[in-house]
Amino acid sequence: MNLSDLTATELLGLYAAGEASPVEAVQDCFARISAVNPVLNAVLTPLEEQALAAARASADRWAAGTARPLEGVPYGLKDIVATAGIRTTGGSALYADHVPTTDATLAARLRDAGGILLAKLHTFEFACGGAQNRTFGPCRNPWDVDRTTGGSSSGSGSAVAARMLPLAIGTDTGGSIRIPSSYCGLTGIKPTYGKVPRDGVMGMSWTMDHAGPMTRSAADAALVLDVISGASAGDPTSSARPVPDHTAAIGAGVAGRRVGRLRGWFEERMHPAVGAAYESALVELAGTGVEVVDVELEEVDVIAAASWTVIYSEMLSLHAGVAHLIEDRDAMGAGILSATPYVHAADYLKALRYRAVFQQQLDSVMAAAGLDAFVTPAATTTPPKLADMLVDTGDGLVDWLDVASRVTVPFNYSGSPALVVPGALVDGVPTSVQLAGRPHDETTLFALASAFQVATTHHLVRPAEEPLHTTVPSTAGAPA
Amino acid sequence: MSTTTDPKTTVEVLLAAAGLTVTPEEFDAIVRSYPDVRARIDAMYAVPMAKEEEPQLVFTPFV
């Protein structure tokens, strides 16, 4: 048995039974990183020495009966999450040698819960720079190494899917947890706005930014969210609500729950094969006893424009200090930054006002239809090839940015929790389903997701091994 | 907030005000896309909403 193949929940079970140790798990993970990272480029900064020291301390805690919730569980952090004494690059040449002096709150919480930080992981530059990271090279999708993982939590998606580690932290401003989770066949959750504090996490758009776990099961995602949620003095936007026991929702009955299938906008520009996989997933969801009913939102086409109006405004404000260095940045991030000045103050305020209208609309639709959650596809196409970053919507090839975030960004804008789970493969790569819920009601999403994963095996399917060990031509973007 | 100003002039002025420099090719692409970007933003103004809705949130994320 290779311990790097196991989920966090499975590892904790073996540790508790005395059938494996954190030291063995960390060793297996680093052996896996050595074997496949040369192709995938998911790990920017490996931390083997300190991880092994932490694993030995964890083994002692298990022996002493003082294990904590994540005792001895290896994990990775997207490299926009600050780590004291460990370089945090933001995926950018501008921060290539940046070493923070304090941990992000969520990083400290993972460590204090007994988690073992194995590596800082690849990210699109500043969480918006594009798949072709000119400083660190592209990160590859384990399901098809010619394709992108999506982003911006690229390394988190690739590393967890390739079994380098069982879980990682991603961040999500317009879909950056859910898109790579979808493209890489993972379970990922963007929690309610404010649930996970973001102090120490590089910002892009402060009313749209979220952080959350990317894992290989709903149970693991709940386990991590239990640890990283809750108010932080360092983040005034973090929620003061008590953190519910998300793990308790795993395995809860879902018979009789009602889920609203968002039609129209959310199912447009979808490749027919991806659409067929989505239909199959809805049948599987209904097979758990959930009632799936059709619903639609009004004026939904305005949501994307309003969402990007907020992102542009806040991004320009946050990045104003480095705006003059735009020529040193990756193309996609520079392109987004170039689009930011065309939003006026009145537009930004209008978009903030429309946010309240949209939140109210979601609430009204849920109340009128008696819904517990919404369901949408998590991506309407398969992941694009790194060579051209074009996706096939069924009506032709388009730039992936035209469609990648259309089903995800509305829930950044509303602040609602949204969780994605893998569906069937199409062309050998994963499809995915998104469940979105009421603010602060992640537990319903975990109950639905875990029921889906009891009824299906999509989350257990793993990428083929051989391509992960094949040398990639250096012209295709080896790390610089 | 729609504008009747020539897109090229608008893009030139706003980029300069933001301190951003782009290549001539990128500049041309931005000028081409600007009317569409502006139209999508202007669509927000067609949605009826009461001024009293700002800044009240339906849910308060911090509590």
Layout of secondary structure:
The complex is a heterodimer of chains A (480) and B (63).
Chain A: H1 8-17, H2 22-40, E1 43-46, H3 48-64, E2 74-78, H4 105-112, E3 116-121, E4 140-141, E5 144-148, H5 154-161, E6 167-172, H6 178-184, E7 187-190, E8 210-215, H7 218-228, E9 258-262, H8 272-286, E10 291-295, H9 301-318, H10 331-339, H11 345-369, E11 373-377, E12 390-392, E13 397-399, H12 409-414, E14 418-426, E15 429-436, H13 442-455
Parallel strand pairs in A: 2-3, 2-6, 9-10, 9-11
Antiparallel strand pairs in A: 1-3, 4-5, 6-8, 7-8, 7-14, 11-15, 12-13, 14-15
Chain B: H1 7-18, H2 24-42
Helix pairs in contact in B: 1-2
What does this structure look like?
The complex is a heterodimer of chains A (480) and B (63). With 480 residues, chain A is an alpha/beta fold. In chain A, 35% of the residues lie in helices and 16% in strands. Chain A has helices at residues 8-17, 22-40, 48-64, 105-112, 154-161, 178-184, 218-228, 272-286, 301-318, 331-339, 345-369, 409-414, 442-455, and strands at residues 43-46, 74-78, 116-121, 140-141, 144-148, 167-172, 187-190, 210-215, 258-262, 291-295, 373-377, 390-392, 397-399, 418-426, 429-436. In chain A, the strands form three sheets. An eleven-stranded mixed sheet of chain A has the order 1-3-2-6-8-7-14-15-11-9-10. Chain A has a two-stranded antiparallel sheet with strand order 4-5. Chain A has a two-stranded antiparallel sheet with strand order 12-13. In chain A, strand 4 and strand 5 form a beta hairpin. Mean pLDDT of chain A is 94; it is low at 473-480. With 63 residues, chain B is mainly alpha-helical. Chain B has a domain at 7-46. Chain B is built from two helices and no strands. The longest helix of chain B has 19 residues, at 24-42. The termini of chain B are far apart. Chain A binds chain B through residues 192-194, 236-241, 299, 301-302, 304-306, 309, 316, 320, 323-324, 326-327, 334-335, 337-344, 346-347, 349-357, 359-360, 363, 415, 439-440, and chain B through 1, 10-11, 14-15, 17-22, 26, 30, 34, 37-38, 40-41, 43-47, 49, 51, 53-59, 61-63.
